[in-house]
TrEMBL record:
Alphabetical list of Pfam families matching this protein: ADK, ADK_lid
Pathways involved: Purine metabolism; AMP biosynthesis via salvage pathway; AMP from ADP: step 1/1
Annotated signal sequence range: none
GO MF annotation, one: ATP binding
GO term, biological process aspect, one: AMP salvage
Family matches, as HAMAP family: Adenylate_kinase_Adk
Designated name of the protein: Adenylate kinase
Job of this protein: Catalyzes the reversible transfer of the terminal phosphate group between ATP and AMP. Plays an important role in cellular energy homeostasis and in adenine nucleotide metabolism.
SUPFAM superfamilies: Microbial and mitochondrial ADK, insert 'zinc finger' domain (SSF57774), P-loop containing nucleoside triphosphate hydrolases (SSF52540)
GO cellular component, one term: cytoplasm
NMP, as annotated region: 30-59
Top-level division of the source organism's lineage: Bacteria
Length: 219
């Protein structure tokens, strides 16, 4: 099964992608992982991406598309994959269609995780990260530490990342609405979009997604 996962920042795409990929026995391909792997391995695409990033510039679509195609060409993705963070715009979506069409393949579904904007802001702006270990994550509403501002695990100071501040979150949402959200209509025209609510417990959202996805395998 070949799936694209879309949704605003804070929708839980990374968490759901991991569970869905495991349940469907297909690799989870995330843009972040692609960039980290290519840069750390010093691939030609990774070196190009690093040049742009070091200069504070956006990485061109051609580089991102190249990384995604290389990853989809790997053996473990022959039977399907779950794309998370790619495609990010119409140009990337058209490139993905062309890539799949050239191999006689197509997407099975585009899973749209729907979350109200106020909930997105609440989820992200409420996060607090431990300075000593960034894997220790708390939330002012959903996962409060026993002592305010102090990590339950190691006693480190909890802080709010700049990326998590409300004004930054709302700017990220503006970018999502202008650049990424249009791909939903693009895929709706192909009859591929399945929209589910991303509210509730992680397991509930995963079950909702599994029930909504088509059962056929396009491999």
């Amino acid at each position: 099964m070949r799936i694209v996962l879309v949704g605003p920042p804070g929708a839980g795409k990374g968490t759901q992608a991991a569970y869905l990929a495991k349940n469907l026995a297909i690799p989870h391909i995330s843009t972040g992982d692609l960039f980290r792997a290519n840069i750390s391995q010093g691939t030609p695409l990774g070196l190009k991406a690093k040049e742009y990033m070091s200069a504070g510039q956006l990485v061109p679509d051609s580089v991102t598309i190249g990384m995604a195609e290389d990853r989809m060409d790997q053996e473990d993705a022959a039977g399907g994959f779950l794309l998370d963070g790619f495609p990010r715009n119409i140009g990337q979506a058209e490139a993905l269609d062309a890539y799949l069409s050239g191999k006689g393949l197509r997407l099975d579904a585009v899973l749209d995780l729907e979350v109200p904007e106020d909930e997105v802001v609440k989820r992200i702006a409420g996060r607090r990260i431990c300075r000593a270990d960034s894997s220790h994550v708390f939330h002012v509403i959903y996962n409060q530490p026993r002592t305010e501002g102090v990590c339950d695990v190691c006693g480190g100071e909890l802080y709010q990342r700049d990326d998590d501040r409300e004004d930054t979150v709302r700017k990220r949402l503006e970018v999502y609405h202008s650049e990424t959200e249009p791909i939903i209509d693009y895929y709706k025209a192909q009859g591929l979009v399945v929209t589910i609510s991303a509210l509730g417990k992680v397991a509930e959202v995963t079950q909702r997604a599994m029930e909504a996805l088509p059962s056929r395998d396009a491999s």
